[in-house]
Amino acid sequence: MELMTPLFAILCPAIAAALILPSRNHPNIREAWTIAASLAMFLLVLSMAPLIVKGETIKLILFQSMFKDIYIGFKVDAFGEIFAITASSLWVLVSIYSIGYMRTLKEHAQTRYYFSFCFAIMGAVGVALSANLVTLFIFFEIITVSTYPLVIHEQTPEALRAGHKYLAYLMPAGAFLLFGIMITYYLAGTKDFTPSGIRQLADASPLVVTVLFFAFLLGFMKAAWMPFHSWLPSAMIAPSPVSALLHAVAVVKAGVFGIVRIVGYVIGMDLMQELGLWLILAGIAGFTMIVASFFAITQDNLKRRLAYSTISQLSYIILGAALLTRDSMQGAMLHIPFHGYMKITLFLCAGAILVATGKTRISEMAGIGKRMPLTMLAFSIAAIGMAGIPPVCGFISKLYLCLGAWAVGSPYGMIFLAVILISSLLDIVYFFPIILTAFFKKPAEDISVFGEEKMKEAPPLVVVPLTITAIFSLIFFIYPNMFYIYDLAKMAISELFGGV
């Protein structure tokens, strides 16, 4: 039964998508399928965590080609389980939020929206549970195709341009990823993920391995590292639940997840160190962290500021993997779920403000904290955590990243430690003015909704999910092992580095 659990988890959103289409004229039934599938998927994914923590292996081969090393299948390891738990748990909350958001704004094409959302989450969890590069590639491309209709949801000229840019970046990225997979198989005769890397790659020439590294790095352009990032702010034209999906759950997290996979489970940390590839990756990450933060400071549109914040925060994960120390890698793995819960809170708050007031610009939000106290309190909690300030979970992952940079033990380690600290300071610079504007600035005039009534909180189906994600951002600080996250991270580090 346990061996089939990954397949059952993946099938939940696929079955829901098939049921959503014929339910297009019955919104309550259509959305019930979404909620039921999200809960079922989360429970199935979570049920595997105790087994993985105990050291058991869950592997399922779906299709075996005539070449025994080429197959499609799932293998649940500790690192993949962290991402799967993050994506599946947040899908539950975003599904509830979507109902309130889409109905309140009377959005069109809601059936297409829920249908596409199902496949996007299926792709994300499929990436997390993939046994090898082939399976990962298939689900990675499912994410690209399924999120395109979500990006262009508004179907305005601006939305269509954003969708075209989205595909212009991510479709070639898929070609680079496929090229990297082909090189890997040619050199090693396998595509399986192996803790500490695929041993046969060490016998290849340094030039070939370097080409392989850059092929994978370009293949995982979903990580939005600079200069291949501009598709992400453009995609903010999408509805707020989609922005939350892009930034906290499926797309960009799949990108950084893939980079960590390549560093730890394909090329391997020893080879990364030997060829100096770690320094290239760390340099790219550090540059992105700082420059994206400066871009965020200049944005008045709330969602675009959050978008540039995401670009910066994703590179914390990349930097943690690049530094190749136990603490830095653990910080990178923990930042996947912790950032997920904090960032999704911020985007859900942005959507709640839009639903309740129609406001999208920070300069228009003076006094909004007094009129939407729950929303802005949740926003403040998440913003504090993004800056790495306790008592929010971002402090824990950033602390591990700082310890990891210190453990490098060379001038480079001190440089990257400074980058982490400076970037965290810049988080304060672009987040705290929003909080100050919301709670301490007086609005220039009475703010009303459609000129009829004073501003108030968004509907409960919108406010409750963002409140829950904010609460979990606090709970993870107090109890980081919620959903077995901390134990899974420790086990993944043990597999990569050996020992306990």
Structural notes for this entry:
- With 500 residues, the chain is mainly alpha-helical.
- It has one domain (2-497).
- Helices cover 72% and strands 3% of the residues.
- It is built from 20 helices and four strands.
- It has helices at 5-20, 27-53, 78-104, 110-129, 133-151, 157-188, 206-219, 231-234, 240-249, 251-267, 269-274, 277-297, 302-323, 326-357, 368-371, 373-386, 394-407, 411-440, 460-478, 485-497; strands spanning 58-64, 71-76, 448-449, 453-454.
- A two-stranded antiparallel ribbon has the order 1-2. The chain has a two-stranded antiparallel sheet with strand order 3-4.
- A hairpin with a 3-residue loop joins strand 3 (448-449) and strand 4 (453-454).
- It is globular, with a radius of gyration of 21 Å.
- The two termini are 29 Å apart.
- InterPro entries: CPA3_Na-H_Antiporter_A, ND/Mrp_TM.
- This is Membrane bound hydrogenase subunit.
- Residues 130-418 form the NADH:quinone oxidoreductase/Mrp antiporter transmembrane domain.
Task: Describe the secondary-structure layout.
Layout: H1 5-20, H2 27-53, E1 58-64, E2 71-76, H3 78-104, H4 110-129, H5 133-151, H6 157-188, H7 206-219, H8 231-234, H9 240-249, H10 251-267, H11 269-274, H12 277-297, H13 302-323, H14 326-357, H15 368-371, H16 373-386, H17 394-407, H18 411-440, E3 448-449, E4 453-454, H19 460-478, H20 485-497
Antiparallel strand pairs: 1-2, 3-4
Helix pairs in contact: 1-2, 1-4, 2-3, 3-4, 3-9, 3-14, 3-19, 3-20, 4-5, 4-10, 5-6, 6-7, 9-10, 9-14, 10-13, 12-13, 12-18, 13-14, 13-17, 13-18, 14-16, 14-17, 14-19, 14-20, 16-18, 16-19, 17-18
